Amino acid sequence: MSLKRNKIRVAAISANLTPRDWDGNVDKINKGIADAVSKGASIIVTPELSITGYGNEDMFFFSDTEDMVFKSLENLKIPKSVSVVVGFPLVVANRMYNASAFIANKYGNLEIQGIYLKQNLAKNGVHYEPRWFNKWTKGESIVMEIMGSKVPVGDVTFDFDGVIIGNEVCEDSWVASRPGVDLFSKGVDLIINPSASHFAVGKYKIREQLICEGSRAFGAAYIYANINGCESGRTVYDGGNIIASNGKIVARGRRLFFDDIDVSVADIDLWENRLVHQASSQSILTHATSNHIKIGFDLTEQVLPPIEYRQQSRWELSENLEHEETVRAVALGMYDWLKKTGVKGYMLSLSGGADSALCAAEILIIIENVFNDFNVNCFTDLPCWMKSIYPELEALKLPSPELKKAVAQKMLWCVYQGTENSSDTTFDAAENLANSIGAHFGAWNINQEILGYTQKVESYIGRKLTWETDDITLQNIQARVRVPGLWMVANATSRLLMTTSNMSESAVGYQTMDGDSAGCLAPIIGIRKSKVLEILEWLYVQGTAIGDNTITIPGLDLVINQKPTAELRPTEQNDEDDLMPFYILDLIISETIVSRRGPSDLFLSLREKTNEYTDLELVNFIVRYFELFSRNQWKRDRSAPGFHIEQDSLDPKTYARFPLLNSGMKKELNDLKRSVGII
Question: Domain range holding 536?
């Protein structure tokens, strides 16, 4: 007698995808399928829009997109009696939808069994889905001719040999009226969720709650598969597949990993979840069997290989989880920029200050993670892209410790550019850190270039430039003169020039355009200044957990023992004197960008949250912030691309969008001043 099993083995694939990398994306999916099948999985879920990549933006509209999608589907390698969920854009009646297709190999040929169309589109934060996609209407379905077959499309569920499967795609699970509510009434056993859920500090815990609660409330196992890596240049995804059953996590995937794929496998006890339905007082929907697709597999009982529950990594259990997440997300984003652009490494102006120090430290974190994730003991163990750009290292036959240093010297080139306003302290800090990381370090003086430009301008305007009358002009020329040499080295050696802007200073325009803001990539622009300083001290004192090791950076000692300074004036300069205390600035940014508080409401909130300053001082901080914020929007708009790291990123292209020309909040600020008796 053939016994139906009460358990089914499922898998979720996390992959580092690239927009329109048709062969590369399919190759990663196929590797994930092979891994999952070797472990006995029958149902396999890949991330949202896994065929095209999620971040195609207006490339979704290219005329050949549909043809390339269907050609790619033909290259999937799916064994018999296995069903795989893949995502791609689908055009229905000349409208584009975000689709997830069940593809199966029933009789030796791949067949699309049915396609679910996403019902809720993300339009907040870094997401802009309604620009490209339409949302599908709940409860509606049609039949389309696709790849020579009649395929049910829309709000559909699947019967996989008696296992009922429903769908939520990313945003579907984040809304109040999520599809899972109807799926419970349809008696589903599994809910699959292909996702492109971006990284932000602390967000993973929210995802866990959504998935576990969905599994518990809807009486279904929940299979969540997410993208990993910096897929298209700005947004970092943190992987972290989750499979939950009966409200409990039964499998976890790796997060922020540096190799291409991660596969999570789990056994689902169908009976355990079905009991929830039997005990429920909620009636089934009258259309519970409509839009229902039967996949004729025979899932008879079979012996499956044992699977092992993956424990969370050491860093995921750290008491400094925010710091661990932050440095890994930035490192992974920087790693993907190198891998996907094919350049030789990074170029950095290493000033001896905190911001450039964190940018440099991220290179060491990249290398340590690569050596850990790829288990590198010698050159042949390095990822293929790294071997292709550093082929000269092969002949050296270096063991792992020496190979790390050799890779660091290739990956990061940095230079200290001194002026008459520079100190020995910052030079020593820069040199010490570069040596600690193993970077290629150099130094030069730019006084002659500054003098040359100063004399030319003085001759042109017919007067001398002085610190009393031309403070900003004389500060800015020092920052701008540093850039041409950096670009020359970057061009001559095929490197990406990093800009060191952080989120706090970027918010108020405390940077020199075409000076310290110049570069291809701004790795830390999504991190507050106060957080930058905390992370550097943590990396020096406690260190980051990578594999079984804890990595500290001793060369940060001279950096963390000085006050942040631009060193652009002859007299001593302190960044907080120029602006305001960083923790107040960062609190204001959070209150305005996340909570969207105007000046008066912001004042009341600050007065509740700090008792260090008088009302007059708080008003002055608020006035200075809004004046700088309002008039420097053009600077943010010209910033190099960076990563969304903290919840309140200021990236004007993906998150915080404000008008370049505005009133400067004059009326609101005057009202605030009157309320506290300043005017």
Answer: 320-576
